[in-house]
Each structure stands twice: as structure tokens, then as C-alpha cells.
Amino acid sequence: MKQRRFHLDELLGALFLGIMAVIAFINVINRYFFKQSFAFTEEITVSLFVWITLLGISIAFRRGSNLKMSNLFDKFGPHAKRVVLVSSAILGIIIFCFIIYNSVREIYRNITFYHTTSEALGIPTWIYSLGTPLFSLVVIRELIASTISELKKLDGKPESDSGEAV
After folding, report:
1. In Å, how far are 3, 9, 111, 121, 127 from 131, measured between CA atoms?
2. What residues does each domain of the chain span?
3. What is the pLDDT of residues 137-149, one digit of tens each?
4. Distance in angstroms (rounded) separating the CA atoms of residues 85 and 154
5. In this predicted model, what pLDDT tens digit does every residue of 109-119 receive, in sequence order?
6. In 10 A of CB 65, how many CB atoms?
7. CB of 138 within 8 A of CB of 54?
């Protein structure tokens, strides 16, 4: 019997989603009984939503369930499929490097120049931004791994342990 390995991005995504659900539930109960809303809930849920989105992208790449145009891709020959796989991976890496570059730049500015804090909790805003470059690196790692896996499938080689979790 094969055991399923746990991936950190899946665990973090589940944890963040659970935190968001608890916060939303508490806020709804508070509004119902006390007719007031907690101001801090929006800050936390928006940041966690962005982080969950990035984690979901990495999970989709690992599982091979990312958005593809398979009707068109399946009509290509093996050489054209390789070219499309490699070029789409390069384009994806460029996009996420751009996201990393700009988010790190924004974090740096918030730490050194702006010194901004969140309105409700008074937390430095750069803390909310930390997940974007970190989880974008996870996306790049999974993008490269899934591209290598797809290229191996095209060559007819068996997939190594770096692919889908079993």
C-alpha cells in the first residue's frame, strides 16, 4: 500500500483556510449579537487569501491540474510539445520572478522608508507582504518540477519520486 506524503504548501493552505473560516465565523457571530464588526478581520483574511492563492498555484502545478489548453496541446507533435512546455515554463518563471522582485522591493520600502503599519492591528505592513515572495518561490519550484515531469513523460521515461505525491 502506498502512503501519501504531506506537502508543506497543502498543510499551510489548509491552516490558512481554517484560520480564515474561524475569523469569518467569529465576525459573523459578533455582528449578529453585538451589531459590530471586528476591524482586523479584513486585514488578516485579505493577506491569507493572497497567500492561499499562491499556495494553490503551486499545488496545481504539482498535481498537473494547472490551467492548460489541452485540446490544442494534444494536437502538437512531440517536438512542438517540448517547445511549448519549456516556453510556458520560462514565461511562468519570468512572471513569478517579477512578482518576487516587486514584492521584495515593496517589503524593503516598507521596512526602510515608509514604516507603515496596518490600521486595525498596528502591525508593520511588510509582515503581510512576506508570503508573496516566499510562496512565489514555492510556485517556481513546483513549476520547474512539473515541467521536468511532463518532459520525461514525453520522452517515455518513468516519473521519479519528485512528481505527484503518492
Report:
1. 29, 12, 15, 18, 8
2. 8-155
3. 999 999 999 999 9
4. 10
5. 999 999 999 98
6. 10
7. yes
